[in-house]
Amino acid sequence: MTSRGTSRPAPAPPRPRPARGAALLTALLLLLVADVVPGRGPRAAAGPPAADVVPAVTASWTVPGGTLAVALTARPEPPGPTGRATDARDTRLAHRTADNGAAADRPFPTASMVKLFLAEDLLHRARAGLVTLGERDWALLQDMIRSSDDPAASELWTRFDGPQMVRDVADRYGLPGTAPPADPSQWGETTTTARDLARFLALLPTVAAPADATTLLVWMRTATPLAADGFDQRFGAFGTLPGMPAVKQGWMCCVDGVRHLHSVAVSGDRVVVLLSELPPSVSWDEARAALSAAAAALPAPRG
């Protein structure tokens, strides 16, 4: 997403799509090779404690007049079906999470981060039998995540009640700072916090069905270097963290006279969330370089 107006572009003309079965099989194989299937096989350790890393990340981002929100956490193991186990999971997650205080708790316009919520909720609805997704729908979901395709997001937002999808995800994952946009037609102005995004990605393998979490993480892991609109996605966590992190990138100009550039990732057991707000005088190239410098301060996960 590059501007406020891109929240509602006309759908792009249809183009050839891979069969759903073949695409999902390829995704599952890629994820197994990357050895990140939750609960199956070894996963990389999270590295140094998050609280030791956040100061280095924030110090590496220097943009006059800008704001950076940072949240880091380590994904918990599946808690089991009981409420007590879920409470214990949340306690462990809180102990393994660090952020930069008020900035991480401040609502930011999501830009394309909202696409993660839309994809998760549609996968959830389809599994519950509440909606039937056709082959085109699966292709739209994949394009929306991998190449941050705005027309795909606009179509799914309109057809499946995007504001309600945001509310449903916020309820299921316990995201108090996440809400639909004041103008329902502007999906990029959905609001969320760095803490909420870190919690969402950390809990994805335990709240979503394992196959749905796998599918979404693979789409993130195979993000395209250039977005559907030609924007270079190789900033922040993408192109900076080692290996093949599962990433989602977002950008938007301008809301309330400022640019927004965001990057989130699942790398090993670590979840990384970087949300930034910058004056319009800062170019996209400068903004990308600043967010990449912040991501570069993260030590590689051990393993």
TrEMBL record:
Top-level lineage group: Bacteria
Protein name according to UniProt: Beta-lactamase enzyme family protein
Organism listed in the record: Geodermatophilus obscurus
A GO BP annotation: beta-lactam antibiotic catabolic process
GO molecular function: beta-lactamase activity
InterPro entries in the cross-refs: Beta-lactam/transpept-like (IPR012338), Beta-lactam_cat (IPR045155)
Organismal lineage: Bacteria, Bacillati, Actinomycetota, Actinomycetes, Geodermatophilales
Annotated SUPFAM superfamilies: beta-lactamase/transpeptidase-like
Record domain Beta-lactamase class A catalytic: where: 139-224
